[in-house]
UniProtKB/TrEMBL annotation:
InterPro entries: Acyl_CoA_acyltransferase, GNAT_dom. The keyword Transferase applies. Gene3D superfamilies: 3.40.630.30. Residues 28-166 form the N-acetyltransferase domain. Transmembrane segments: none annotated. Keywords: Transferase. It comes from Stackebrandtia endophytica. It holds the Pfam family Acetyltransf_3. GO terms for molecular function: acyltransferase activity, transferring groups other than amino-acyl groups. This is Putative acetyltransferase.
Length: 166
Protein backbone atom coordinates (compact mmCIF):
# COMPACT_ATOMS: atom_id res chain seq x y z
CA UNK A 1 0.00 0.00 0.00
CA UNK A 2 1.07 3.56 -0.66
CA UNK A 3 2.31 5.43 2.42
CA UNK A 4 0.66 8.85 2.57
CA UNK A 5 3.11 11.71 3.17
CA UNK A 6 0.94 13.30 5.89
CA UNK A 7 -2.46 12.82 7.51
CA UNK A 8 -5.10 13.74 4.89
CA UNK A 9 -7.07 16.97 5.34
CA UNK A 10 -10.07 18.62 3.71
CA UNK A 11 -8.74 21.22 1.29
CA UNK A 12 -10.03 23.63 -1.34
CA UNK A 13 -10.00 21.87 -4.74
CA UNK A 14 -6.62 22.43 -6.39
CA UNK A 15 -4.81 21.61 -9.63
CA UNK A 16 -1.97 20.20 -7.52
CA UNK A 17 -3.69 16.81 -7.30
CA UNK A 18 -4.62 16.61 -11.01
CA UNK A 19 -3.25 13.13 -11.73
CA UNK A 20 -4.41 11.40 -8.57
CA UNK A 21 -7.85 13.04 -8.82
CA UNK A 22 -8.41 11.89 -12.41
CA UNK A 23 -7.01 8.38 -11.91
CA UNK A 24 -8.76 7.96 -8.55
CA UNK A 25 -12.15 9.12 -9.82
CA UNK A 26 -11.80 6.98 -12.97
CA UNK A 27 -11.03 3.89 -10.89
CA UNK A 28 -13.99 4.69 -8.64
CA UNK A 29 -16.41 5.26 -11.53
CA UNK A 30 -15.38 1.98 -13.18
CA UNK A 31 -15.71 0.14 -9.86
CA UNK A 32 -19.21 1.58 -9.32
CA UNK A 33 -20.22 0.95 -12.95
CA UNK A 34 -20.88 4.69 -13.32
CA UNK A 35 -20.51 7.04 -16.28
CA UNK A 36 -16.89 8.09 -16.96
CA UNK A 37 -17.80 10.60 -19.69
CA UNK A 38 -17.34 13.67 -17.46
CA UNK A 39 -13.68 12.73 -16.92
CA UNK A 40 -12.86 13.47 -20.58
CA UNK A 41 -13.75 17.14 -20.16
CA UNK A 42 -12.12 17.29 -16.72
CA UNK A 43 -8.85 15.87 -18.06
CA UNK A 44 -8.81 18.28 -21.02
CA UNK A 45 -9.33 21.40 -18.91
CA UNK A 46 -8.52 20.59 -15.31
CA UNK A 47 -7.87 24.25 -14.45
CA UNK A 48 -11.42 25.13 -15.49
CA UNK A 49 -12.80 22.04 -13.76
CA UNK A 50 -11.16 23.10 -10.49
CA UNK A 51 -12.18 26.76 -10.87
CA UNK A 52 -15.83 25.65 -11.09
CA UNK A 53 -15.48 23.88 -7.75
CA UNK A 54 -13.78 26.52 -5.60
CA UNK A 55 -15.72 28.53 -3.05
CA UNK A 56 -19.30 28.70 -1.90
CA UNK A 57 -21.65 28.14 -4.86
CA UNK A 58 -25.33 27.61 -5.39
CA UNK A 59 -25.77 23.86 -5.94
CA UNK A 60 -29.02 21.92 -5.63
CA UNK A 61 -30.57 25.36 -4.99
CA UNK A 62 -28.62 26.01 -1.76
CA UNK A 63 -25.20 27.52 -0.97
CA UNK A 64 -22.65 24.75 -0.72
CA UNK A 65 -18.90 24.20 -0.69
CA UNK A 66 -16.83 21.34 -2.11
CA UNK A 67 -13.72 20.08 -0.31
CA UNK A 68 -11.19 17.51 -1.48
CA UNK A 69 -9.59 15.13 1.01
CA UNK A 70 -5.90 15.32 0.23
CA UNK A 71 -2.50 14.18 1.52
CA UNK A 72 0.39 15.77 -0.35
CA UNK A 73 -0.24 15.04 -4.04
CA UNK A 74 -2.77 12.30 -3.27
CA UNK A 75 -6.51 12.94 -3.70
CA UNK A 76 -8.60 10.51 -1.65
CA UNK A 77 -12.16 11.77 -1.82
CA UNK A 78 -14.68 14.60 -1.83
CA UNK A 79 -16.94 16.09 0.83
CA UNK A 80 -19.68 18.64 0.14
CA UNK A 81 -21.04 20.92 2.87
CA UNK A 82 -24.51 22.36 2.23
CA UNK A 83 -25.12 25.53 4.20
CA UNK A 84 -28.87 24.88 4.16
CA UNK A 85 -30.98 21.80 3.68
CA UNK A 86 -32.45 21.19 0.23
CA UNK A 87 -36.23 21.17 0.04
CA UNK A 88 -37.47 17.84 1.34
CA UNK A 89 -34.20 17.55 3.33
CA UNK A 90 -32.83 15.24 0.63
CA UNK A 91 -29.04 14.87 0.76
CA UNK A 92 -28.64 16.37 4.23
CA UNK A 93 -25.99 18.91 5.26
CA UNK A 94 -23.02 16.79 4.14
CA UNK A 95 -22.37 14.41 1.25
CA UNK A 96 -19.14 12.54 0.59
CA UNK A 97 -17.30 9.74 -1.11
CA UNK A 98 -13.87 8.15 -0.85
CA UNK A 99 -12.51 6.85 -4.17
CA UNK A 100 -12.22 3.09 -4.46
CA UNK A 101 -8.39 2.79 -4.23
CA UNK A 102 -8.51 4.47 -0.77
CA UNK A 103 -11.55 2.80 0.74
CA UNK A 104 -11.61 0.64 3.89
CA UNK A 105 -8.84 2.56 5.66
CA UNK A 106 -10.97 4.76 7.91
CA UNK A 107 -10.72 7.79 5.61
CA UNK A 108 -14.47 8.42 5.29
CA UNK A 109 -14.88 8.25 9.05
CA UNK A 110 -12.07 10.78 9.61
CA UNK A 111 -13.15 12.94 6.65
CA UNK A 112 -16.73 13.21 7.94
CA UNK A 113 -15.42 14.09 11.43
CA UNK A 114 -13.41 16.96 9.94
CA UNK A 115 -16.36 18.03 7.76
CA UNK A 116 -18.69 18.19 10.78
CA UNK A 117 -16.20 20.61 12.35
CA UNK A 118 -17.04 23.12 9.60
CA UNK A 119 -20.73 23.33 10.54
CA UNK A 120 -20.73 25.35 13.81
CA UNK A 121 -19.28 28.41 12.05
CA UNK A 122 -22.28 28.19 9.68
CA UNK A 123 -24.65 28.26 12.65
CA UNK A 124 -25.48 24.55 12.32
CA UNK A 125 -25.30 22.59 15.58
CA UNK A 126 -27.24 19.52 14.47
CA UNK A 127 -26.29 17.89 11.17
CA UNK A 128 -28.65 15.85 9.00
CA UNK A 129 -27.16 13.07 6.85
CA UNK A 130 -29.21 10.87 4.53
CA UNK A 131 -28.17 7.47 3.23
CA UNK A 132 -29.61 4.77 0.99
CA UNK A 133 -31.06 1.93 3.03
CA UNK A 134 -28.60 -0.57 1.49
CA UNK A 135 -25.50 1.62 2.02
CA UNK A 136 -24.36 -0.06 5.21
CA UNK A 137 -20.79 1.25 4.77
CA UNK A 138 -21.91 4.88 4.90
CA UNK A 139 -24.33 4.16 7.73
CA UNK A 140 -21.41 2.76 9.73
CA UNK A 141 -19.32 5.86 8.95
CA UNK A 142 -22.16 8.10 10.20
CA UNK A 143 -22.78 6.02 13.33
CA UNK A 144 -19.06 6.15 14.15
CA UNK A 145 -19.47 9.93 14.09
CA UNK A 146 -22.36 9.88 16.54
CA UNK A 147 -25.24 9.64 14.05
CA UNK A 148 -28.65 8.78 15.50
CA UNK A 149 -31.19 7.24 13.12
CA UNK A 150 -34.47 9.14 12.55
CA UNK A 151 -36.73 7.39 10.06
CA UNK A 152 -36.61 7.89 6.28
CA UNK A 153 -37.02 10.93 4.01
CA UNK A 154 -39.34 11.35 1.02
CA UNK A 155 -36.85 9.44 -1.19
CA UNK A 156 -36.80 6.49 1.20
CA UNK A 157 -33.29 7.29 2.45
CA UNK A 158 -32.39 6.72 6.09
CA UNK A 159 -32.01 9.99 8.04
CA UNK A 160 -29.34 10.41 10.69
CA UNK A 161 -28.84 13.39 13.02
CA UNK A 162 -25.47 14.23 14.52
CA UNK A 163 -25.41 16.62 17.48
CA UNK A 164 -22.31 18.74 17.08
CA UNK A 165 -23.07 21.22 19.85
CA UNK A 166 -21.22 19.11 22.42
C1 LIG B 1 -19.23 4.77 2.05
C2 LIG B 1 -17.79 5.18 1.83
C3 LIG B 1 -17.70 6.70 1.90
C4 LIG B 1 -16.92 4.56 2.94
O1 LIG B 1 -15.59 5.02 2.76
P1 LIG B 1 -14.36 4.34 3.53
O2 LIG B 1 -13.24 5.33 3.54
O3 LIG B 1 -14.12 3.01 2.96
O4 LIG B 1 -14.97 4.19 5.00
P2 LIG B 1 -14.18 3.77 6.33
O5 LIG B 1 -12.89 3.14 5.99
O6 LIG B 1 -14.17 4.95 7.22
O7 LIG B 1 -15.15 2.62 6.84
C5 LIG B 1 -15.76 2.64 8.07
C6 LIG B 1 -16.55 1.34 8.24
O8 LIG B 1 -17.61 1.26 7.30
C7 LIG B 1 -17.77 -0.13 6.94
N1 LIG B 1 -17.48 -0.28 5.52
C8 LIG B 1 -16.81 0.59 4.70
N2 LIG B 1 -16.79 0.12 3.44
C9 LIG B 1 -17.45 -1.07 3.45
C10 LIG B 1 -17.77 -2.01 2.47
N3 LIG B 1 -17.42 -1.83 1.18
N4 LIG B 1 -18.44 -3.12 2.84
C11 LIG B 1 -18.83 -3.30 4.11
N5 LIG B 1 -18.56 -2.42 5.12
C12 LIG B 1 -17.88 -1.32 4.78
C13 LIG B 1 -16.79 -0.93 7.75
O9 LIG B 1 -17.41 -1.33 8.96
C14 LIG B 1 -15.73 0.10 7.99
O10 LIG B 1 -14.97 -0.16 9.13
P3 LIG B 1 -13.82 -1.30 9.11
O11 LIG B 1 -13.01 -1.10 7.86
O12 LIG B 1 -13.09 -0.97 10.39
O13 LIG B 1 -14.54 -2.59 9.13
C15 LIG B 1 -17.24 4.69 0.46
O14 LIG B 1 -17.48 3.31 0.35
C16 LIG B 1 -17.87 5.42 -0.72
O15 LIG B 1 -17.41 6.49 -1.10
N6 LIG B 1 -18.93 4.81 -1.30
C17 LIG B 1 -19.61 5.40 -2.45
C18 LIG B 1 -20.25 6.75 -2.17
C19 LIG B 1 -21.12 6.78 -0.95
O16 LIG B 1 -21.78 5.80 -0.61
N7 LIG B 1 -21.12 7.94 -0.26
C20 LIG B 1 -21.93 8.15 0.92
C21 LIG B 1 -23.30 8.55 0.51
S1 LIG B 1 -24.31 8.86 1.96
Amino acid sequence: MITLPEPPRLTTPSTRVRLSYLVGEQADMIHRGSDTEWLAAASQDFDGFVADRVGVRERWGVPSEVFWYVSGDYYLGTLVVRHQLIEGEVGGHIGYHVVYPWQRRGHATAMLREGLGKLPELGIDRALLTVATDNLASQTVIERNGGVEDGVNQDGEVRFWIDISK
